[in-house]
Amino acid sequence: MRIILSGASGLVGSALAPFFAARGHDVVRLVRRAPAAGDARWDPSARHIDRAALERAGAVVHLSGERVIGRWTAAKRAAIRSSRVDTTRFLAETIAGLERRPRTFVAASAIGYYGDRGDEPVTEDSTPGTGFLADLCRDWEAASEPAREAGVRVVRTRIGLVLTPAGGTLGQLLPFFRLGLGGPIGRGRQWWSWIAMDDLLALFAFALERDALRGPVNITSPDPVRNAEFARTLGRVLRRPAFLPVPPLVLRLLYGVAADEVLLTGQRVLPARAGQAGFRFSFATLEPALQHLLRGGGGA
């Protein structure tokens, strides 16, 4: 099918575009700059988009959004919200108003929806949490409603910690762990709900190709781990010690209140709907996933 993809230059989008193309799909990147051949232009702040490109598409996959980690000044919070909520609403309203609509709208969300739940396992049926990220994700998902109300199948992908040596959290941790300077964050008791990039890509394709799948879908492995276990496993795969903790005070000095919501708390998320729909994970547990990414698929 023809797929319109926003956020194609991001960590997930830059891997998803060639993955979709390899499966035979025609990928049209939604860009804000002057479009290259095969791209389509949009400017959400000016409410401009190439409507003809959308009408020729079978699906829209929306990934773009401001980076969350950083000091949450008023301007940063506004940019995070606008880049997610406003752009999603604009896309959904545009899709709803088309004469020929795409059949499917896959709209990114995040497991921050659940807030800090301690040791409680959460699934797609769990209630939303509290805090800036939980409120953001709730509004982010609600912004796709116009498309759903117009009869488009909407899938809301609640993405967990994406593991790839190309960037993201794992990419930032690797230099320290390779030097033997890695370790848990704080006490390391917070849950990290992760997903290997290979399984994330396969899950997005699964969401596009399974008409029965709709609503929220957790994009996480079935085996979340505590941060301390993540650090030990990463050290073991790299054959390096991993016992130097990162003090919470340091993180709070660097990131302010964002440290508490993003790094020092977590969610124990289970991908119930993917499992019920028949998805099979290639990397359901952490150590084989890291072995593949760092020694096989990504190179250590």
Please give the alpha-carbon distance between the first and last residues: 36 Å
% residues in beta strands: 15-25%
Continuous helix count: 12
Largest sheet: 8 strands, mixed
The count of strands amounts to: 14
Order of helices and strands: EHEEEHEHEEHHEEHEEHEEHHHEHH
> How helix-rich are the residues, as a percent range?
40-55%
| SSE class | alpha/beta
> What is the typical, i.e. mean, pLDDT?
95
Give a written overview of the molecule.
Helix content is 40%, strand content 18%. It has 12 helices and 14 strands. The strands form 4 sheets. Strands 4-3-2-1-5-6-8-12 form an 8-stranded mixed beta sheet, with helices on both faces. A two-stranded parallel sheet has the order 7-14. It has a two-stranded parallel ribbon with strand order 9-11. The two termini are 36 Å apart. The model has no long low-confidence stretch (mean pLDDT 95). It has helices spanning 13-22, 51-55, 74-96, 132-142, 145-149, 168-178, 197-209, 227-238, 248-255, 258-263, 272-276, 286-296, and strands spanning 2-6, 26-31, 40-43, 48-49, 59-62, 104-110, 121-122, 153-159, 161-163, 191-192, 194-196, 215-219, 225-226, 268-269. With 300 residues, the chain is an alpha/beta fold. Helix 1 links the parallel strand 1 (2-6) and strand 2.
